[in-house]
Amino acid sequence: MNCQQTIAHSASVSGVGVHSGKPASLTVRPAGEGVGVVFVRSDVTDRAAEIPALVTMVTTTELGTNMSNEAGVSVATVEHFLAACAGLGIDNVIAELDGPELPILDGSSKPFVALLERAGVRGQTASKRVLKILKPVEIRHGVKLARLSPGDGFTMKIAIDFPTKAIGRQEIRFTMAPGAFAREIAWARTFGFAHQAEQLHAIGKGLGASMDNTVVIEGDRVLNVDGLQAPDEFVRHKLLDVIGDLFLAGGMIDGLYEAEQPGHALNNQLLRAVFADPTAFAWT
Ligand SMILES: [Zn+2]
Q1: pLDDT tens digits, residue range 12-25?
Q2: In the chain, pLDDT over 70 holds for what percent of residues?
Q3: Ligand 1 centroid distance, CA of 263 (Å)
Q4: pTM (2 decimals)?
Q5: How far is the CA of 55 from the centre of ligand 1 (A)?
Q6: Ligand 1 mean position to 79 CA, how many Å?
Q7: Does the domain spanning 130-283 belong to CATH 3.30.1700.10?
């Protein structure tokens, strides 16, 4: 696993954007060494349509991680796809999209893992880029905290705490290893609260959200007929988001990530803080 990887063939998946509610098709294509993950908007022809999946391209982190390039071309809700790339160790891939938002599919990374597996993983010869953390860097916002510190391999420890019996306090520790992401994390679905749906709709968001792609909580209950896939599906999904967000570093991290109530904004600020301090990291 020390050499870069891409995919062997092209493959596609279609669905709707969770916020736009509009149909969206994603086609993954092989990419050369050192290219990284690059989103390309196939529906944009009059401007630069490429958006590299890098932390510097992130423009907003409300309700998802969203990016845009210098020409103002954007791509929304990238984190579940990026988590699948990170989880499978795919370094280089072109992700062609026919609209402004990735399809939400079942709300987890599992369909993206299936997409990339269908495309086939192909080894390359250049060494992987690894971001080695050399000293602790931390971001705090009230009770929220995210920290990266030196470690051996890529381990994450996170906790969430929601004032509903459906979730409560949940903690998880996970170390990235071959097969581990698909087995333990990829299937965990996104979640939301029934009372927020109307507020989201009022601002034109969440239009594609349904119980087919979101675990919906009302009071202390999960409303989805089939319930949860595991009692701690919530914290597993937050970890999935962390893995996707941290892949925007531009390579896998060698270090320990710890967080209390992590979110897209916190993860983005943390990566920017690491890169702002040249003594905090090294590319190996
Ligand atoms: Zn998510």
Answers
A1: 999 999 998 999 99
A2: 100
A3: 9
A4: 0.97
A5: 17
A6: 7
A7: yes
